[in-house]
Amino acid sequence: MKKIILYFMLLALTSLTACDPVESRETLDGAITAEQLNISATPIVVNGKNSNKVILKNNSPVLSWWNYGTGTTQMQTDTVLLVLKGENSITFTGQNGDGSQISKTITVNVEELSFPVPPEWGYLCGSGSKTWVWDETAPSVWGNGGYKNDKAPAWWTLKIGDINGQAANEGTGASMDFSISGAAFTKLKSDGSSEKGSFALLMTSVTLDDNGNVWAKGKLKTKGTTVLCGKSPNEGGAPVYEYDILILNDNKMILSYPEPGVGSGGTAWFWVFRAK
User: Fold this and answer.
1) 128 falls in which pLDDT band (50, 70, 90)?
2) CATH superfamily of 28-110
């Protein structure tokens, strides 16, 4: 009887050992390499040509973060709009289960802008990149005024010669470059130094005034640095990275930023620029 019991104990132990999988550190961690990514960026074909709408797909077991130059998305599958003909770089960054990140860049060739592109992209960046400076022809270039009421500095107003007192080397002689490629943004100071970042145009973020009229036709967001003198004095000089677009055309750009929580008529800050 003891031999029978011992036999079944050995049989059970053998079965458990046989079912125990061989340890795979990669499987346990849920980590893959950039070479193992299964991703794609496929332009929608219109009339036989690659259009500027691109379908992004991530079929890999990682979290998604796509940077398609003029915007980002964290969707596993998404359709995005490109604004530039020719070769566009789309960078995918994935996050593994163990927290590690992997990246891969795909090049997409856009043959036709088959889908409408907001004209503000052309206003801001020209045919590829464009330089903006303070508008010295305006009565003032920076200051505050009423949120949803004013369209330019109206209360405390400063001319270009006063800007350096608020932000050193960001007045006369300073400029900003906006480039469609990679949505790159560079602030060039009058002392020769520069700060680099990126930007996004959100032309669906419209702000109406109390009468239902368009006060701001979209938003400009920057990352990495601000526009010239991009600060909020009543918040201790805190940097501002999101601006309402009041005016943006080939020659003029007026931006605004409301202080947190203000309603119509509350304090907002205004920037007045022109194309160089």
Assistant:
1) confident
2) Immunoglobulins (2.60.40.10)
